[in-house]
Amino acid sequence: MTRTLLRPALAGFLALALSMPLTALAQTRQVPEGREQISLSFAPLVKQAAPAVVNIYTKRRVQQRLSPLLEDPMFRRFFGDAFAGIPRERVESSLGSGVILEADGLIVTNAHVINGSDEITVVLADRREFPAKLVKLDEKVDLAVLRIDPGAERLPTLALHDSDDLEVGDLVLAIGNPFGVGQTVTSGIVSAVARTAVGISDYNFFIQTDAAINPGNSGGALIGMDGRLVGINTAIYSRSGGSIGIGFAIPANMVRTVVDAVAKGGKLVRPWIGAGGQAVTADLAASMGLPRPAGVLINQVRAGGPAAKAGLKVGDVVTAINGRAVDDPDSMRYRVATLPVGQAAALTILRQGREQQVSLHLIAPPEDPPRQQTKLTGRQPLAGAEVANINPALAEETGITDADSGVVVLEVERGSPAGAVGLRPGDIVLRLNEVTVRTVDDLQGALRQSVRRWTLSVRRGDQTLTTTIGG
User: What pairs with residue 160 in β-bridges?
Assistant: First the structure.
């Protein structure tokens, strides 16, 4: 029996249904006429796409003590130190899914599926197993690229769809390996196309779907009705651990940037525009005379940066990039991140209530000022901390979004004076005693002071913390 793909008939029915009043719709209910209407199915689409979706199994070896009881003084009194402190190796296993994007064995999955693993095994839809090598890990967007060696064989692949073409209500299928039961297909619709503030990764911009996604689906495929990949299934909102119809996928356009980086040698460089902004709230929109609370209010423009050269000013409201709506800072960051360095982007802005177009040249984040990465030593309270000048390149690498200058703590040595003070990686040093810290040189100069009492101020997230050291 031939199965016909569901979408054309379903779309036609929905169009007819939406054009009718409810009473007329009730009167048009009919028994299916003929075998063809009964056999409408997603099966042809699944047969085309499923062979390119793989299962991923990982192993990680961890060291642990045999038992806390072995450290008990009473135990050691009777049995001595023979057993105390002996480590035991334990193997942790996890599972997930992945998608073959290139016929020679290039596979994309989530970073959290394979991160920290010692062994990665890819199992194809036909049950063949291959050891996999990690090619690229991008924790900021929770993506990883693997490679297997199928020899001369050309593997089935999924092509990437332009995820910006998705609309709320489009039908989608999720394919993966939930709970390790084996390859599973679920269907649903696109619930949202630009879901931000989810808190899953540094680049918060996701496709939301009600297709059932469960543990083990991570890294699997979300496909559209043309059989192409629209997203990589990544996370769910759940109170029980199972699907309640709120799942999130990384858009295919973000996947494309990571895969393209691998093709160019593995280094991923995302554009820098030299400007930052905040969401336009209802109060801000009312005070500025805007029709609705949407867009990004520019609140900082770096001198000499691309935004400044393009004429962007503090107070401008960015509403779209290349014709795609920008509703908040996360969506603006995503739109910029999916564009290639070296090209120009068309920004739609509101300035004093009037809409304008600005052409912005996209460049790589510069090393300006030089980061001057330094390990602090000597007899002073911050010894053991590794610090650096914040510049655009370092901010991109470390995920700093709330500062474009200053001195940031990169590492803190365990057991060091800096650790005892409570300094943490990511802290931005603001002041030491009476010295305002703008550069590593400023900080080192302040630490050379001969004083008995130190007052240190740092910014941690959205808080400013001040502590006094010494008496």
Answer: 229
The distance between the two most distant Cα atoms of the chain, rounded to a whole number of Å, is 93
3-state secondary structure 267-323: CCCCCECCEEEEECCHHHHHHHCCCCCCCEEEEEECCCCHHHHHCCCCCCEEEEECC
Compute mean pLDDT per 10 residues along the chain, 471 residues long, and list them. 46 47 55 71 92 94 60 54 58 86 96 92 94 93 95 96 93 91 92 75 82 89 95 81 82 94 84 92 91 92 93 95 91 91 94 92 94 94 95 87 85 94 94 94 93 92 89 59
Spatial separation of the C-alpha atoms in residues 118 and 134, rounded to whole Å? 10
Residue 97 appears among annotated catalytic residues: no
Predicted local distance difference test score (pLDDT) of residue 27: 55
Q: Is 44 exposed, middle or buried (CB count within 10 Å of its CB: 0-12, 13-18, 19+)? A: middle
Q: How far is residue 255's CA from residue 262's CA, in Å, rounded to a whole number?
A: 11
| Annotated catalytic residue, options 94, 97, 112, 427 | 112
Per the annotation, the verdict on 218 as an active-site residue is: yes
Distance CA 6, CA 27 (A): 23
CA distance 110 to 365: 25
* Catalytic annotation, pick one of 94, 138, 142, 316: 142
Tokens standing for 413? 């040595």
Q: Name residues whose C-beta falls within 8 Å of residue 168's C-beta, 6 or more positions apart in sequence.
A: 189, 190, 191, 192, 193
Round to whole Å and give the CA distance between 220 and 462: 35
**Catalytic residue list contains 161:** no
pTM exceeds cut of 0.85? no
Q: Cβ(203)–Cβ(141) under 8 Å?
A: yes
Out of 218, 243, 331, 416, the active site residue is: 218
State residue 18's pLDDT score.
Answer: 47
CA atoms of 226 and 5, how far apart (whole Å) = 10
Distance CA 411, CA 417 (A): 13
Domains within the chain, CATH numbers bracketed: 4-41 (no CATH), 43-268 (2.40.10.120), 275-361 (2.30.42.10), 374-469 (2.30.42.10)
Amino acid 80: pLDDT: 56
